[in-house]
Amino acid sequence: MPSSSIRPVDAQPQPVLGPPAPVAVFLVVTIEPGGEPAVRDLLSGLTGLVRAVGFPSPDGGLCCVAGVGSEAWDRLFGAPRPRELHPFRELEGARHRAVSTPGDLLFHIRAARTDLCFALVAEIMKRLREAVTVQDEVQAFAYFDSRNLLGFVDGTENPVGQAAAEAAIVGPEDPGFTGGSYAIVQKYVHDVDAWEALAVEAQEKVIGRSKLTNIELDMPGSHKDVNTVLGPDGEELEILRGAMPFGRPGHGEFGTYFIAYARSPETPEAMMRKMFLGGPESEPDPILDYSQAVTGTLFFVPSATFLDALPERSATH
Ligand code: HEM
Question: Is there an atom of ligand 1 within 6 Å of 133 CB?
Fold first, then answer.
């Protein structure tokens, strides 16, 4: 998509383009039958709720992105639907599986402080307690200098500024849903014992960057190489990643909560196909020999403008 076709900003996105934050919570819930009105109320007031919780701590950077799953979209809003919203497509390779797991709503909450994220989740759940079942709640954190629990710097090649908006925000190709985004999430757990048994050089071969200095290496078949996906005109396709570490060392749990925002879900899906299934001339991603995807869900993130207009929409719906 040539950048000249990017729309003028007519719908304000949710804070999808927010910078990496020290703390995040990923909350995924399913909606109980009859819970739709409470969910619509919550979503229509979300901007105000985040403002109320975050305002007293201006340096706290509290923000929240809410996403809606494919079936939930119909239950909550009916037609029209975002053009490319569908359930997460499970992938079954010879060695690796990308599972699809339940999720009607995603709340991706970021802040500089744990207490702000905690307080916002508490307020959201106060309003949704009777309406939803929590499927997953993950507290994630920035680890040393933006490293994941495999010890490598994560996020270096993320697009920034206008390039991030072009990668992540829906434009005129779906006129009813400009300012939206697609969020794809996968919770990964790592086999850190097997990973740490590898020599650093072998780890670098898996990732495709040097561990200490974070320099890109020419490593065919590495995670970096597998995730270099080209579009029809040979251009590199981009997504906006916000993956964060999580874990409970006392329970032997070490993970990466992967989230990607994309203007079209086809881009991260193409990356996942290469990772999990391999390509005609390439093997699956070696990172999967040390990382198992235990969840997988796709959401549409409507614009903030869409959410703020929900009360009027419900009145006419
Ligand atoms: C176990 C989960 C994962 C871990 C630990 C992980 C880690 C990393 C690391 C360390 C890098 C190199 C630095 C950087 O540019 O960020 C990277 C790059 C990247 N990853 Fe992942 N990743 C994971 C899953 C995924 C998935 C599921 C996707 C796609 C849907 C993905 C897409 C990418 C892309 C596009 C890049 C940038 C490639 C480039 O240099 O152009 N990653 N990842």
Answer: no
